[in-house]
Amino acid sequence: MLKSRWFYCSSNFFNQAYANDLKSTEYKVSSPKSEFEFSLILPECVEPAWMVCFLDVKLLINKRDEKTKKALQVLEIEMGVPKSEAIKEMLFVETRSLDNIDSLGHKIFKIGDFNFDGYTDFALMTGAAGGYGTPSYTFYIFDPKKGFFYEDFKFSALTNQGQIHHYFDYLNKKISVYSRSSSTDSREDIYVVKNNIPNLLSSTTRVLTNQDGVDKIKVVLMRQDDTGAWTRKSYFEEIE
């Protein structure tokens, strides 16, 4: 039995379909870079009002190559489910294998090491609270002392407050978050992780402005130094 309800998110109305009685299919997700294997039990998405239906999903987590059939952890969460013909394209991405932000795509399941501690973490598409209705995610960080994943609101907030893209720079251990307020005005925030918390390191805004009768892009760079003090630098860029 399919039920439906409306919810308000990111300045648009989306139809949120959910059901416990829909046909479900199990999808295995694994990565050579991950010490875990994941099984997503996805109900069938019948009538998506957006790119996905938001449905109750079960996630089973196991250690790789572990013979026991008992799951290490089981989560039940409402998340985005694509139509069956789009699942292969949208199912998951291993962020540690990406070269640039353009490779991210709108995946419903992301694997990576988001706090750069050497352990696999994951994120699930759970809304459309990004900029211009782009996906927002709930992040789960692995706690090696307790041996399970926990929901982390600070990492999740990097995707659910109007941001359009996020990218994990594993070489420099930084997180880039992009947002846009208009077709010409944008912002890039760079975070570093300290004590498992993303801390803002710098923020660069680009705003279309008029300088002496000529349209230019005003760039303002704010950066925090090692003492915690912020410096500000501004300059103009020519419009190509």
User: How many β strands by DSSP?
Assistant: 17
Relative strand content: over 45%
Quickly count the helices: 2
**Strand pairing plus helix content: what structural class?**
mainly beta
Portion in helices: under 10%
- What is the ordering of alpha helices and beta strands? EEEEEEHEEEEEHEEEEEE
Oligomeric form of this entry? single chain
**Shape, please?**
globular
Rounded mean pLDDT is 85
Low-confidence stretches: 1-20
- CA(first)-CA(last) distance: 55 Å
Radius of gyration: 20 Å
Give the neighbour order of strands across the main sheet.
12-13-14-15-16-17
- Main sheet? 6 strands, antiparallel
Report what the structure shows.
The chain is built from two helices and 17 strands. 26% of the residues are buried. The longest helix is centred in the middle third of the chain and has 4 residues, at 87-90. The protein has a six-stranded antiparallel sheet with strand order 12-13-14-15-16-17, with no helix packed on it. Helix content is 3%, strand content 56%. It is globular, with a radius of gyration of 20 Å. It has helices at 87-90, 153-156; strands at 3-9, 12-18, 24-30, 36-43, 53-63, 73-81, 92-94, 109-112, 121-127, 136-143, 148-152, 163-169, 174-180, 186-194, 197-211, 214-224, 230-238.
Topology:
Blueprint: E1 3-9, E2 12-18, E3 24-30, E4 36-43, E5 53-63, E6 73-81, H1 87-90, E7 92-94, E8 109-112, E9 121-127, E10 136-143, E11 148-152, H2 153-156, E12 163-169, E13 174-180, E14 186-194, E15 197-211, E16 214-224, E17 230-238
Parallel strand pairs: 7-8
Antiparallel strand pairs: 1-2, 3-4, 4-5, 5-6, 8-9, 9-10, 10-11, 12-13, 13-14, 14-15, 15-16, 16-17
